[in-house]
Every structure is written in C-alpha cells, then in structure tokens.
Amino acid sequence: MDSKQTALATIVVLGGIGLLAVSCSDDDVDDSLKAVEHAPADSYAPASAAKHEPEPRHAVPAVNRDVSWAYDGDGAPFLWSELKADYELCGAGNNQSPIDISAVTITDLADIEFNYQASPLEITNNGHTIQVNYAPGSSITVGDKKYELLQFHFHSPSEHTVGGKAYDMVAHLVHKSADGQLGVVGVMFKAGSAVNNAIAKVWLNMPEKAGTTVDVSDVVINAADLLPRDMTYFNYSGSLTTPPCSEGVNWMVMATPNQIASEQVKQFTRLFPLSARPVQPLNGRSVTVSN
Question: What pLDDT score does 291 carry?
C-alpha cells in the first residue's frame, strides 16, 4: 500500500455526527484529497471548510426570450431555465453540475484506461470558451464501457470546487459511449510559474473572434498531455454545466491538479473573464473516490 492509500485508509470518527475524516499528515496526499471529508453512503454533510452556497433555484416557468445564455447579465446562470423551454433542466433538474466536492465515499472504482492518440489541432472559439475538436480514434474505457473522445474545452475558474475551493482553471474532456452516454473527465489546473506545454499549443493558435474555427493541421496535440500523473478521481452522476444542462453525465474529476502558468490563465481570461457556472445542490447524490 503506497503513502496515499495509507492516508486514505486512516480514518477517525468525528464525535457523534457519523462523518469520517481522512488523516492528511502525509505530504504525498494532494490538496484535493486534503480538502474533502469521507462519509458513509447515507451521510453527505458538507465539509465545514466549504463556503460556497448552491446557486439559488427559481420556480419560474421556462419561456423563450431573445437573450443568449451567458455567465453574467441578462443571460446569467440563474436565468438559464427562463431563456428557452429546452433549458428547463437548468432550473428544475435534481442532478445538476458542477458541485462542491466536500464529502466522499472511498470505494473500489474502476481505473480509467486512457487510449489517447495525437490529433491535428482544430480550435473553436464558441463565444463561451475555447474548444479543441478531436479527431476520431481516441477513447477512455471505464470498467466494461468505452467512451470516444469528442472534444475538450476550458473554464476559469474551475467549475467543480473541492472543499469550497476553486482551482484557477479546468479542462473538460468530453466523451460519448456507443449508447449515447456522455463521460466527462475534469482536470484541474493550479496556477504557478511552470508553463503547460500542451495548453501553450492551443493558446498560440486560438481564435479571438467568437464563432471562429481554425484548422492548424500542421500542429498535433495529444490530450494525454493534459492529464496529471496521479489518476485518482472523484466520480458522480451529474449534468452538462452549460445549457441545456442535460443530466445522466458520468463525471470523473481528477483529484490531483496539473500545473499551468499564471500568464496562461490570464491569456484565457482576457477573452473569457468568467466562464464557470456556480455549484449546484448535491440533492443526496453520492460522490465516490478510488481507494
């Protein structure tokens, strides 16, 4: 058993409230795992460190309005369900994403088998984020289910929070299985001085005008270069974090953040000052982490 597994396995019962807290004295346990509490499946109380309040729910019938969805102003997230009838789940759904990951259950999760190949670089500025469209042939396998990689895109700050804390940026790698289910791998990024070379390729070629796609076929990128070395991940059932907020998404949020340069975050936020939906109520869902 390695040092992280030892730390995960060391638990203490907190006086009378039925929560389990991980012992985090081991320096090898990453920040994300330090920030969460571990609870039995029937007890999902938020960690005391979590300060985020879920986005308020508004019992307003969905109507069609001549307003595009956005992250602020007249198209802000708490109004999404009012903009179009197709966006009703953004307000009425019970399994919405993102969430604050503050209480988790340790279990035997299947490893994510990453089978990523290099892809010619094709980048879209869709007005909300920068998206890299991926060539066919790359996938992940989780247990007996295979998901094909379709695209990855970015948000800043991270949409999921851990123990109430958002990271500086996140990449969402969007996959789809043969039966139509979406599986999204979230990779957090912590800003510092180290340049992320994979993201540097994207930023160097990203279009600044909304609605523009550029094909940089002489440049290749491999999504594997975005992944952290530690493959421990949080798992739960959620939704798209943008309209129409469709549910049934298999979320796999990597527990260990990767590195990105502070200037790279600034390059993105100059185009997209805010690109994160507020955290949503957990509504009794369980969040699991691999042991």
Answer: 74
